Amino acid sequence: MMKILFALFTFVSFSLVAQDAKADKILSSLSSKMKTQSSFYIEFNANIKNAASGLNESNTGKGWVKGEKFHASYGENTRISNGVKSWTILKEEKSVYVTEADDEDEESMNPKKLMTIWETGFKSKYDKEMKLGVDNVHVIYLYPKNPGSVEYHTITLYISTTENELKKAVTKTKDGTTMTYTVTKFQPSTSISDSKFVFDQSKYPGYHIIED
């Protein structure tokens, strides 16, 4: 009996290690591909849902990334970063919040973070291959290495088996909120003018500038 239990434990342990290794290999390949992109443009749909509170909001977003610079829009809000400073433009408030680029929080509108979210602070586990729309995708779970320091407990990635691109990411938080980001368009190595990452105050007359 003990031999059977030991053999079963060994098999399960080996399977888990193999699944983790497969996930790591896919994510490493995706990271390598992203590192070759000097710039990219992305469009995505986002949904935030919490059954307990009745929250169910959907919006669209766009992002331009060039090195450490980015310009992102989400709904009516915009965030611009030149790699040194960041400007968060809130249309409803008619306010612009200016911060150091290094001071970004985890919820900042940085499209580069979305496309490289798996790279730091996670353990990964391969789940399965499945169909997502017209794409065949790998499904990989991410678990935070330090769960006490973050508000979420699981992130699920859906990565194209043929294009080696992130198609969808689903974040589940400890308060029951599910945030789903679906990539609808991805253009690598696109030409983007540096002026895209410059905040032009003249385009926002009447906005209150708030410096951190």
Commentary on this structure:
With 212 residues, this protein is an alpha+beta fold. It has a single domain, classed as Clam (outer membrane lipoprotein receptor (LolB), chain A). Helices cover 18% and strands 47% of the residues. The chain has helices at 2-35, 111-115, and strands at 39-50, 55-66, 69-74, 77-81, 85-90, 95-100, 122-132, 135-144, 152-160, 166-173, 178-188, 208-211. The chain has a twelve-stranded mixed sheet with strand order 7-8-9-10-11-1-2-3-4-5-6-12.
Features:
212 residues, outer membrane lipoprotein receptor (LolB), chain A, twelve-stranded mixed beta sheet, 2 helices, 47% strand, disordered N terminus
List the helices and strands and how they pair.
Blueprint: H1 2-35, E1 39-50, E2 55-66, E3 69-74, E4 77-81, E5 85-90, E6 95-100, H2 111-115, E7 122-132, E8 135-144, E9 152-160, E10 166-173, E11 178-188, E12 208-211
Parallel strand pairs: 6-12
Antiparallel strand pairs: 1-2, 1-11, 2-3, 3-4, 4-5, 5-6, 7-8, 8-9, 9-10, 10-11
Q: CATH fold name, please?
A: outer membrane lipoprotein receptor (LolB), chain A
Backbone shape: globular
Order of helices and strands: HEEEEEEHEEEEEE
SS field, number of helical segments: 2
Average per-residue pLDDT, rounded, comes to 84
